[in-house]
Design goal:
With 277 residues, this protein is an alpha+beta fold. It has two domains: 72 residues, Type Iii Antifreeze Protein Isoform Hplc 12; 135 residues, no CATH class. 27% of the residues lie in helices and 27% in strands. The protein contains seven helices and 13 strands.
């Protein structure tokens, strides 16, 4: 027994032997590590994909989703790729996006209900009203006015002496949406071409009244004309204001001010109607 121990000690004490053993161990470590990394990189991962074409603003349900296995390398290289179906179901395809059939899903294509464009209508401040301006392909400069743009609204009409009136009425107003005649967002899809029919804005109530009164003035060929500006105008918007008192007063002079009835309740539960100017 002692001879065996002595032989082993002498064997391990040889520098050449230690070197050879070290090289062999190093090769084994590299071999095992390499195979582990290759296996990890080539192990397939199940990811969701679209079983059918899914249009913009569509609510995604489980029956629209299939699963396929792809290399984990693809997943690791695509940080935007969605790998969990729970991040898709009951969410929506983003505004302006169509997901083709057999395509995988990416984070930039998916929005929650709170992030959908029309949710802005529900979040307009108190004292504001949605104003719809009728337009066409020509008045939107060949479909060049987009949601989020800040533009100006110009007034065109004829005064009491039959002279043309033309000037800026509203300055720096944000476009909330551009819709076609069927209420669809014009820019939500590239699959079909849509013609703009209305621009939607959120304006203070007094500005809404002014714009509506302008549209109802008869016999003077009144037009409210949208005028786009450059990118800097939208990136650094000013306050939304009436920019011409002259035009404002002309519109108001052509319309009556209607008193508003304010209903109050007295202590004996009787209703009292008063006029508020």
């Amino acid at each position: 027994m002692g001879n065996i121990v002595t032989t082993i000690k002498r064997f391990l004490g040889n520098k050449n032997t230690v070197t050879i053993i070290g090289v062999i161990l190093g090769i084994l470590v590299l071999y095992i590590g390499y195979n582990y990394r290759v296996k990890q990189a080539t192990t397939p991962i199940s990811v969701p994909y679209a079983k059918e074409e899914i249009a913009s603003r569509t609510l995604i349900t489980s029956d629209m989703i299939g699963y396929r296995e792809i290399s984990s390398t693809v997943v690791n290289e695509s940080t935007n790729l969605i790998t969990n179906a729970n991040d898709l179901i009951n969410n929506y395809v983003a505004f302006g996006t169509t997901i083709p059939a057999n395509s995988m899903f990416y984070e930039s294509q998916i929005l929650t209900s709170d992030e959908m464009p029309d949710s802005a209508f529900a979040d307009i401040p108190d004292g504001y009203t949605i104003y719809s301006l009728g337009v066409d392909l020509h008045t939107t400069y060949g479909n060049s006015i987009y949601p989020g743009n800040y533009i100006d609204l110009y007034f065109k009409g004829v005064d009491d002496t039959d002279k043309i009136m033309f000037g800026k009425l509203i300055e720096s107003i944000e476009v909330l949406a551009v819709k076609d005649s069927e209420g669809n967002h014009v820019f939500e899809t590239t699959v079909e071409s849509r013609t703009p029919a209305e621009l939607l804005f959120a304006v203070p109530n007094d500005m809404y009244d002014l714009l509506m009164k302008a549209g109802y003035i008869s016999g003077s060929s009144i037009e409210i004309i949208p005028v786009p500006r450059n990118a800097s105008y939208s990136a650094n918007p000013g306050d939304t204001v009436v920019s011409s008192d002259y035009i404002k007063n002309f519109i108001l002079a052509k319309s009556a001010t209607i008193p508003q009835n304010v209903t109050t309740t007295t202590n004996n539960n009787q209703t009292d109607n008063t006029n508020e100017q």
